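To whoever is on call:

I kicked off a structure prediction for a single chain this morning and the downstream step that reads the tokens threw a length-mismatch warning. I double-checked the sequence; it's 300 residues and nothing unusual in it as far as I can see. Pasting both halves so you can look.
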Amino acid sequence: MFAIAIHGGAGARPRGNLPKEREAQYLAGLEVALSAGYEILKAGGASLDAVTSAVRVLEDDPQFNAGHGAALTRDGGAELDASIMEGKQQRAGAVASVRHVKNPVELARRVMEKSRHVLLVGAGAEEFAREEGFPFVANSYFQTPERIVQLERELAGDKVSEVMPGRGTVGAVALDEHGNLAAATSTGGMTMKRQGRVGDSPIIGAGTYAKNGACAVSCTGHGESFIRAVAAYHVCASLEYRGLTLKQAVHETLRERVAAMGGDGGIIAVDTHGNVVMDFSSQAMFRAMRNSRGDQEVAF
């Protein structure tokens, strides 16, 4: 049994209707990322490779708030966060506030595999990336016309409501045929954030968590609330220590713990049996899943 789920951010639906052409573009982007991860699992590959591949595709797609197309800080720059975790040994790696690494999820994985640390930030993360031979890009690579306009409108006091909000995030969770779980999350954060602001995405236990025998989790939404709720870990702990089903654990985390902190958003998760949950308390969430039983969904 193997399964994968991905998300491309959660938030408000757009003012009016999302044009059919734009909707199709978003869903096509999800399908490409889903396929990238699923094909690895189908070939007998590792869940860690599957989530890395899926998130990397989403980072490269300017429609989503991670990598190319990330939300911008109040000074117009991009500061990127990412994390990854595998469930067998519970190794984890994360980076925050990086400005020149094309695919932050790959750097987070390198932190996990090649350093003695879990989280590196800012200049320290980029120094490590340089030592490891990562290619660097100008910060302008991440800045798309759509995100620039979005920032300008926010700075002018116009609260932009759209299906792909500035605080969206991308992520993936997977179970491979060997029973190993993994999760990865990547984001540009929220539009008009202060320089140096870090949300839940690179925080292990808040935005990302994986443990064999329990589940793998990736979150999206109001990061400050997910941090205070320790949301990703709470989902796994609810399975492991309280005997909740995955659906119950995700529902409780979103609608009780995160809601109590004043936030909303979405969670994708897969458990050790290949059950997938993609739930959200916001108005919409880009999401997709596929498993070896033939189940597949791409929606928002």
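Update from on-call: the warning came from a stale cache, not from the record. Cleared it. Sanity check on the structure: The chain has one domain: 3-299.
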